[in-house]
Design a protein that fits this description.
seven-stranded antiparallel β-sheet, five-stranded antiparallel β-sheet, 18 strands, globular
Length: 537
Amino acid sequence: MEIPTSLLSLSLVLLLSFVLATSADVYENFVQCLTSNSQNTTSISQVIYTTNNSSYTSVLEFSIRNLKFLSPDTPKPLVIITPLHESHIQVAIICARNHGLQIRIRSGGHDYEGLSYVSHVPFFILDLINLRSTSIDVENSTAWVQSGATLGELYYSIAEKSKTLAFPAGMCPTVGVGGLFSGGGYGRLHRKYGLAADNVIDARIINANGRILDRESMGEDLFWAIRGGAGGSFGVVIAWKIKLVPVPSTVTVFTVQRTLEQNATMLVHRWQYIANKIDNDLNIGVDIGRVNSSEGKQTIEASFHCLLLGGVDELLGLMQKNFPELGVVKEDCTEMSWIESIVYFGGFPSGSSLDVLRDRTPLTRYAFKAKSDYVKEPIPEIGLEGIWRMFYEEEAAIAEIFLTPYGGKMDEIPESETPFPHRAGTIYQVQQAVGWEEGVEASERYKDWVRRLYSYMTPYVSNSPREAYVNYRDLDLGINNEKGKTSYEQANIWGAKYFKNNFKRLVHVKTMVDPTDFFRHEQSIPPVSPWWKKRGN
């Protein structure tokens, strides 16, 4: 029997009205819960941004780093909370549980898939931007840093206290500490000192019951999980105690560009044989993209970026010994302090003040899609040439491949030491990224381009599993169910790529600390039901 069109239309209107009414009820009850359960109602009201608040849009958009999530059809939070105190977070967690709201935790806003500020079910954002203090203990070479701080703010604070202490983390100063530490975190010092997560020695976390725990009270299993198991699964990490590392008063940097006409293919091929074997004090990464040559023709350019913990003469000796083909000369090199190298690699203009590190606004923003890989055997020149061909396509105008060398300390740390498993046997990590400036309707062309590049690289990268870096979040690898439970088998499709055999332990920890799966998103660690519940006993 055919249902009249008028009845179908009425049904849709009623359904939409019900959904809107339900969302409105959840929103009002949640906000009421926040104010009525806060110890200081004036304080909590100052950090709650509802859709009716004139600052709602600016607060939401300030920390969105991937412009594809600024489109009108991107789901928006019912509420944004920017806590000033730990108690604000505790109340938010309890009220969200009571009223069925999903939580999204934002530190710096650099999640590649927007999982720190986008959800397809009713949600609120816990934006940690106000929890960004740092406390540096030079005598003991340690520091406490809150999750809302950026790397630039952390580095600036360290340099204020010492010129010979540093921290091994990322190179982008606007990245949030909370997200980076949760997934691993590498930079120019990881070959010498390991990842950021490898140098975390304590933490404060608020769990799904609203309790504040430190390393001793949370236990070693949970402490293990939050150092590389990615954010948004186990609780809200509000602060990290980190071990600072020694650096010399003088470091040396260079950036040397070579095009195809200047033997870039040979040089990248040769780099693969030395990148993970050179002195641990030396880090040489490569960025590859399309440029216009001096003759006005399009070509491929490889930029070799180097940091040495030492002086220029030492660097020239190491380059002559290990990579003479690059032809680095003294004029290519600059001696500076470690903190000045952070500004240099951050892409700021020459002569910029250190104050730029405290600016949370990125130099550039694009809509983008990225993927990641790990290389265990050098890619032959013919394989590299196939990559270059793809960079001549129209969609690759704002596209790059970033090659990050491993080896050194990364080889020495066992795969199971933290959830981050990409250790010995890895020559380098690959990030494939494409950006675009057109609107949403054009985005699929660019996403398709980077997916085709990823497919092309299949024979040249790790397999069984094909490994990926969780801080370069990629929902193409698989997602959890939006509603209801997600099985271990389903989650392991993406989980094994990020965590290899560590995924099983992460699921075990999740089941212990958050069995109801309050902290969840498309790629959060799922809990598993006990065996007796599976059997229905």
